Amino acid sequence: MPETHLVTGGAGFVGSHLVLALLARGDRVVVLDDLSTGHAAAVPEGAVLIAGRIGDPDALARAFAHGPFASVLHFAALSLVGDSMREPYRYLAENAKNGLALIEAAVAHGVTRFVLSSTAALFGAPTTIPIPEDEPIDPGSPYGESKAWLERALIWAERIHGLRSACLRYFNAAGADPGGRLGEDHRPETHLIPLVLDAAAGRRPPLTVFGDDYPTPDGTCIRDYIHVADLAEAHLLALEALTTRSVRYNLGNGTGYSVREVIATAERVTGRRVPHTVGPRRAGDPPVLVASSRRIREELGWAPRYPELETIIAHAWAWRQAHPDGYRQPR
Fold first, then answer.
1. Which residues have a catalytic role annotated?
2. What is the pTM of this model?
3. Residues facing residue 7 across a β-bridge
């Protein structure tokens, strides 16, 4: 039977792809997004968009008036690790305050399922790679700390109010809708793959590789990249699991890719050279960050459909080529 869901941050990269997946299975979706980093044009046709901030009680009231909701899926947050190191109190205050307001509203309106788009940045300096769920939570940034606070708040929301929750921890969402309907458009852009593609297209200056002397096979940092459509599928599976229990899952491909591997793969996909220079290391960049997804694979049967880096980059390139100005209409 079709359900109705509230998706905060549904005009953003991962949130919009989740909205698309919910609509594809026949559900009704209401999006609450202040459009500070998201785009109204990214909200798939058929969803209801409420423009407003989670921290605004009037906006929350307008959103929940479209209920009752079977679930709340929460993507809206300040999410740049580097910015959080420069503005720690802003990140801690806004992410925690807004998340708590949303949890409280969900409880008040009788919602029984809550999915949090969390982060593998909960694990600041992991001792095990790929990172399992039982790795000690020790955030390396205020951004990661703010997500850890919300995960703890959701534990209490279940104990006291019965609100079951799923927390999904991942690093780098990448790619684009395989059907070409949605893609990645951040302003400013900070993610490696779109930066590499824009450098290949000549739309930005040469890429800077931050350090090539790490203890990795080619000297550059290794990171986990997950196709955004596979992330959406993981959220759907977690939502179904919440009919019986709360869950916490780390999400990763299980295989990391170095910066040089991303550049080389992008050059093969695009047929263009990616101009780049090597700069100094960035403070706080660990050599390797890869999350394990063993638990969600075993318990929910999640299996990425697009695990290959070449496919991820090809989908991102196809969308970028079709939308050179992103969601902004060219003048």
1. 143
2. 0.96
3. 31, 73
Residue type, 225: Y
CA distance to 10, 15, 22, 78, 230, per residue, from 38 (Å)? 8, 9, 18, 12, 20
d(CA 315, CA 278): 27
199 and 276 Cβ atoms separated by less than 8 Å: yes
CA-to-CA separations, 108 to 68, 102, 237, in angstroms, rounded: 11, 10, 25
Q: How many CA atoms lie within 13 A of 311 on its CB side?
A: 13
195-216 confidence digits (pLDDT tens): 999 999 999 999 999 999 999 9
Structure tokens belonging to residue 278:
């090597």
> How far is residue 151's CA from residue 145's CA, in Å, rounded to a whole number?
10
CB atoms inside a 10 Å sphere around CB 89: 9
- 318-321 long-range CB contacts below 8 Å, 24 or more apart? 318/176, 318/180, 319/176, 319/177, 319/180, 319/182, 319/183, 319/184, 320/176, 320/183, 320/194, 320/197, 320/198, 320/201, 321/201
Please give the C-alpha separations between residue 293 and each of 61, 171, 290, in angstroms, as whole numbers. Answer: 36, 12, 10
Q: Report the sign of the C-alpha dihedral through residues 160, 166, 170, 173, in that order.
A: negative
